[in-house]
Design brief:
Length: 145
């Protein structure tokens, strides 16, 4: 098929990335439901697993949410003892978020299932192709920051 025969969106990088992300998320949604997870909670807890504490602004960036939206979700998660807020002694406006033991225990099995899901999605790709795909996306993200 000649490039001229490809529809615009099927050759538009932003659409392709967004569509792939959407399809993967929708495919993973039944697993989240089975584990009794809301998508934002999953994203937040998965992001927190690699940090002792993270600034709320940085977390908002990592989980692709606006800070006011994230703050409301964190309120509920803190009530359920999944996350903890720590205020800086020097600057009360500075808030760091950390995952609690309960949050870590809740998300750990889902982290494994997420990697299994990723493996299923990438079935047919070689390890080298998978590495190239991920590195290309990481490079693009860094370029666009």
């Amino acid at each position: 098929m000649a490039k001229a025969d490809i529809e615009f969106l099927d050759d538009f990088l932003a659409y392709l990335i967004s569509r792939a992300s959407h399809l993967m998320a929708e495919d993973f949604a039944p697993i989240l439901k089975e584990e009794n997870f809301e998508r934002p909670h999953w994203r937040i807890l998965a992001s927190l697993t690699n940090y002792d504490k993270i600034a709320i602004g940085k977390l908002a960036n990592r989980v692709l949410m606006k800070q006011p939206t994230l703050t409301k979700i964190l309120d509920r998660m803190e009530e359920n003892n999944l996350v903890k807020r720590t205020h800086s002694k020097e600057d009360r406006r500075s808030v760091k978020i950390s995952i609690t033991k309960k949050g870590r225990d809740k998300v750990s099995p889902l982290l494994r299932r997420a990697k299994e899901h990723e493996k299923d999605v990438l079935e047919g790709y070689t390890a080298e192709e998978e590495a190239i795909l991920k590195q290309a996306l990481r490079t693009l993200i860094q370029k666009l920051k």
